[in-house]
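From the methods appendix. Each design record in this collection lists the tokenized structure first, followed by the designed amino acid sequence. Records were kept in a plain field format so they could be parsed without special tools. The example shown here is representative of the layout used throughout.

RECORD:
FOLD TOKENS (472 positions):
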């Protein structure tokens, strides 16, 4: 009779047991229901038929809802102000282009996940492509960005509570109040528990956007005007460009979400729903808010509305900020948890060690986000740096590397599957060039975004606008 540890032992490629060439799909390229042959034998959670804690429970509609709840919240609120810098035509074109670009890169990420079922996060993908060093870099980037994103949502909660109460309390206290439910909601071990909360979360941000547009139309700025296009320095233009770039920055979570799907091969449906909804909603919201509020529109956009409407929109959007923060902190904790307990019974059973470790990781992730948000005066700028260093790659650039790697190893999803090396690249010249440019685009966004973020910090210190740590 098998012991419990043998019963749940992970039998696929382990954390450091990748095949010599980093391939997890068979070279024959045989598929079963759209997934590589042997997919369930090699995926992150193995066979969960008799497991007490089951992770692979998500349907593709729930994954789409999770993606929308994660990405759309803060993303849309910065776009009208960004459009005011460059003009309405360049702004809308940029949002649409980046939405299409983000859809393309998300489909590439999903193909890579289907080819390599053992991949749970960006670090696992780094192990396949570049070994232990790249694994640690991409894992660290995922955790850092997730913690910083949690802190960003805590600041959104701080702003919301401040607006609702007319700033009657210390801002740090508002952040602490908001951090408590964020921690509680991030606690479930599996994403299916969070996914159902994401449904009202998505409804809230959609309704908040509609109410915000209605309020802007009913109370337009008296000095509003619309610029078709505006000239700006590279610095000012790229500062505005980073907002739509990072409005789509959710790809770093996609591997984790797909790993908990019942049918990972349905993930592309979720990606299509996410990007079509996000891009359409972003464009409509941006155009309406900019047209009625003009160049003076603030970021977040709701802060430009009359007080009673600002309270209404922030209040409606509050659950979305809360759930998005919970998702981010859950992601940071989940990466460590899977790293520690993959192939052990603690992953699938209710053990003291498993739950104690999970509790500590959740507290650490949320605690770090809170300390950074209230204790670092330049935290908002550090979020921009983290986004430039990591989200630029996770959302855009690294997808090009994924395709080039899989194509080289005969795993391209197209007609050249089973063709290897330079022959595969030459056989798909358009894809080869497109994905090479995708990689270079990620590098450009990373370098330019980091430059403007650092310059923003320098300018803030020069102007004396940087406050003190833990200040109200």
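DESIGN:
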């Amino acid at each position: 009779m098998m012991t419990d540890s043998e019963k749940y032992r992970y039998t696929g490629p382990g954390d450091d047991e990748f095949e010599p060439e980093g391939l997890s799909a068979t070279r024959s390229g045989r598929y079963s229901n759209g997934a590589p042959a042997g997919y369930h034998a090699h995926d992150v959670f193995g066979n969960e038929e008799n497991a007490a804690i089951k992770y692979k429970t998500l349907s593709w509609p729930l994954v789409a809802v999770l993606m929308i709840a994660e990405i759309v919240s803060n993303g849309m609120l910065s776009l009208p102000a960004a459009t005011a810098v460059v003009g309405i035509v360049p702004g809308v074109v940029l949002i649409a282009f980046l939405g299409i670009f983000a859809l393309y890169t998300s489909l590439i990420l999903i193909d890579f996940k289907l080819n390599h079922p053992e991949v749970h996060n960006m670090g696992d993908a780094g192990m396949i492509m570049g070994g232990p060093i790249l694994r640690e870099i991409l894992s660290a980037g995922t955790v850092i960005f997730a913690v910083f994103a949690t802190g960003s949502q805590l600041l959104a909660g701080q702003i919301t509570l401040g607006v609702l109460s007319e700033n009657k309390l210390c801002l740090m206290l508002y952040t602490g109040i908001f951090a408590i439910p964020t921690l509680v909601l991030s606690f479930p071990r599996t994403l299916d528990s969070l996914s159902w909360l994401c449904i009202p979360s998505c409804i809230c941000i959609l309704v908040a956007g509609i109410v915000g547009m209605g309020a802007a139309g009913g109370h337009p700025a008296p000095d509003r005007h619309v610029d078709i296009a505006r000239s700006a320095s590279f610095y000012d233009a790229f500062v505005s460009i980073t907002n739509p770039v990072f409005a789509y920055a959710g790809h770093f979570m996609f591997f984790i979400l797909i790993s908990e799907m019942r049918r990972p091969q349905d993930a592309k449906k979720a990606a299509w729903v996410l990007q079509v909804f996000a891009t359409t909603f972003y464009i409509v919201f941006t155009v309406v808010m900019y047209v009625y509020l003009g160049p003076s529109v603030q970021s977040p956009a709701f802060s430009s509305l009359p007080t009673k409407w600002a309270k209404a929109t922030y209040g409606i959007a509050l659950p979305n900020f809360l759930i998005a923060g919970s998702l981010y902190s859950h992601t940071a904790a989940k990466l460590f948890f899977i790293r520690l307990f993959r192939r052990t019974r603690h992953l699938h059973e209710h053990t003291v060690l498993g739950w104690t470790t999970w509790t500590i990781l959740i507290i650490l992730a949320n605690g770090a986000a809170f300390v950074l948000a209230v204790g670092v005066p330049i935290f908002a700028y550090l979020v921009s740096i983290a986004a430039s260093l990591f989200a630029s790659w996770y959302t855009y650039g690294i997808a090009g590397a994924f395709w080039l790697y899989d194509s080289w190893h005969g795993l391209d999803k197209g007609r050249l599957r089973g063709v290897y090396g330079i022959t595969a690249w030459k056989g798909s010249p358009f894809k080869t060039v497109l994905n090479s440019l995708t990689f270079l685009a990620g590098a450009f966004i990373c370098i330019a975004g980091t430059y403007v973020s650092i310059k923003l910090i320098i300018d803030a210190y020069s102007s004396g606008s940087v406050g003190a740590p833990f200040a109200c």
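APPENDIX NOTE: Residues 1-41 have pLDDT under 50 and may be disordered.
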